Amino acid sequence: MFMLKRGTLLAVALSLALLVAGSFALSAASAASVPADAPRIVLDAGHGGVDPGVLGGTTGEKESDVNLKIVQKLEKLFAGAGFRVVLTRKNAGGLYGMPTGGYKRRDMEERRRIIREAEPDIVLSVHQNSYPAAPSRRGGQVFFREGSEAGKALSASIQARLNLLGGREISALKGDFFMLECADCPSALVECGFLSNAEEERLLLTDAYQEQIARAVFEGVLLYLA
Ligand SMILES: [Zn+2]
Questions:
Q1: How far apart are CA 25 and CA 29, in angstroms?
Q2: Per the domain annotation, does 195 fall within a domain?
Q3: How far is the CA of 185 from the centre of ligand 1 (A)?
Q4: Which domain holds residue 136?
Q5: Would you say residue 51 lies in a domain?
Q6: Cα of 24 from ligand 1 centre, angstroms
Q7: pLDDT single digits (tens) 37-95
Q8: How far is the CA of 220 from the centre of ligand 1 (A)?
Q9: Is 34 among the domain residues?
Q10: Which CATH number is 112's domain given?
Q11: Cα 170 to Cα 188: distance, rounded to the nearest angstrom
């Protein structure tokens, strides 16, 4: 169950109020003085190293790079709001050691180890989608673990913010993903957009749109906690 101490709740409420007022600003000082009982969030940038994930249909850019950039923006937002933030992957490399046989399994097991060690309150795994058979398909899509009501609520909250950004009405979906099974806390796997859609690919590769996506996900989490 998710429990917040009073001070933490105040911090979250304050962040939310500032956010709603449209004047949310990061403070380096607040990030440096995170209380021990602050909510803990694990941010997982999908893929990495020899596993690029999907590739941009036009540019060939790697999903793994886009995931990391968005996670780094999320890290700043959550740290600035007083969360304790743990990243699974901190750079372009994978988490498998040597890229020999079984690397994917080792990579996933290392992510799970990091998540369990963090004892998080929330886990977010960040990915990009691709569906070349239907290149018009676009928009963020959030997945939750089947049977997790908290994960469903978290995912619906993030999905609502992504829908606002993209001007769509998409529902969060249950999904059978390893990353959603790593902890008992609420978790969401966020597919930020489609690298197979030329226009969305162009947007997803810009710093400004990555920032908009990160902010939408961040707001979705805060609204879930509020
Ligand atoms: Zn992926």
A1: 12
A2: yes
A3: 21
A4: 6-225
A5: yes
A6: 30
A7: 899 999 999 999 999 999 999 999 999 999 999 999 999 999 999 999 999 999 999 99
A8: 20
A9: yes
A10: 3.40.630.40
A11: 15
Tell me the whole-structure pTM to 2 decimals. Answer: 0.87
Distance 14 CA to ligand 1 centre (A): 33
Write down the mean pLDDT value for the chain. Answer: 89
176 φ/ψ angles, rounded to the nearest 5 degrees: -95, 80
* pLDDT score recorded for residue 176: 94
Tell me how far the alpha carbon of residue 47 lies from the centroid of ligand 1, in angstroms: 6
β-partners of residue 79 are: none
Q: Residue 174 in 3-state DSSP?
A: strand
Contacts of 128 (CB under 8 A, 6+ apart): 53, 54, 63, 66, 67, 191, 192, 193, 194, 195, 204
**Nearest alpha carbon to residue 128 among 74, 213, 215, 63:** 63
Looking at residue 26, its pLDDT comes to 45
94, 123, 126: which is closest to 109 by C-alpha?
A: 94
H-run or E-run covering 212: helix 207-225
CA of 59 to the centre of ligand 1 (A): 17
What does the alpha-carbon distance between residue 131 and residue 195 come to, in Å, rounded to a whole number?
Answer: 8
Cα(124) to centroid of ligand 1, in Å? Answer: 13
Task: State how far the alpha carbon of 11 is from the alpha carbons of 23, 52, 119, 135, 219, in Å.
Answer: 15, 37, 20, 42, 14
Contacts of 131 (CB under 8 A, 6+ apart): 137, 194, 196
Residue 191 lies in a domain: yes
